[in-house]
Amino acid sequence: MTTAATVFVLNGPNLNLLGTREPQVYGSATLADVQALCAEACAQHGLTLDFRQSNHEGELVDWIHEAGRAHAAGTLAGVVLNAGAYTHTSVALHDAIKGTGITLVELHISNVHAREAFRHHSYIAPVAKAVIAGFGVRGYALALAGLAALAQP
Ligand code: CA2
Fold first, then answer.
1. Residue from 9, 15, 16, 135 whose mutation best tests the ligand 1 pocket (most atoms within 8 A of CB)
2. Distance 66 CA to ligand 1 centre (A)
3. Is the CB of 103 under 6 A from ligand 1?
4. C-beta 140 within 6 A of ligand 1
5. Residues 99, 48, 125: CA angle, nearest 5 degrees
6. Best exposed site among 11, 29, 62, 132 by fewest CB in 10 Å?
């Protein structure tokens, strides 16, 4: 059963490769390590974790719709979204998030603003509550702490 304090942590394309390539950019933690880190953070904050990854834009859109339904049902604390490269390209994700009312944190492992110019623009940021970038995978725990704080009455 979904509780009133469920958090979706959604990961986009290529994040399944974490820990296998480009450790100088993304560190050496795997996505399984990130899931464990998120589970620990959620346990600390009394949140229920729903952790997912997809390489497919439409599947991420479907999951945002699912989060919107959970929000409407009063069971969602928020969403942490690392949309990967779709951050910089996806009007579809922007449109999916807009108007749902969900509290969404855009998350990046790397500091996208210190990288190539094409990573400086985000279609997610204008429809996000907050943005975290550059803390490595520890940013996921920071995002979850932020959602827990915002969920307090
Ligand atoms: O810094 C981030 O978290 C990013 O969202 C990661 C995306 C990138 O396109 C964004 O600009 C910033 C890339 C995810 C790919 O992750 C890999 C990890 C290891 C090896 C290869 C890819």
1. 15
2. 24
3. no
4. no
5. 35
6. 62
Q: Per residue of the chain (153 residues), what is the pLDDT tens digit?
A: 456 699 999 999 999 999 998 899 998 999 999 999 999 999 999 999 999 999 999 999 999 999 999 999 999 999 999 999 999 999 999 999 998 999 999 999 999 999 999 999 999 999 999 999 999 999 999 999 999 999 887
Query: 26 an active-site residue?
Result: yes
Q: Comparing C-alpha atoms, which of 94, 103, 38 is closest to residue 68?
A: 103
Chain centre distance of CA 140: 8
Query: 33 is written with which tokens?
Result: 């390590």
Q: How many C-beta atoms surround the C-beta of residue 13 within 10 A?
A: 16
Q: Distance (Å, rounded) from C-alpha 89 to C-alpha 58?
A: 13
**How many H-runs (helices) and E-runs (strands) does the chain carry?**
5, 5
143 lines ligand 1 (CB under 6 A): no
> Of 151, 153, 150, 135, which is closest to residue 37 (Cα–Cα)?
135
User: What confidence score (pLDDT) does residue 11 get?
Assistant: 98
Give CA–CA dist 137/6, Å, rounded: 20
pLDDT at position 54, please? Answer: 98
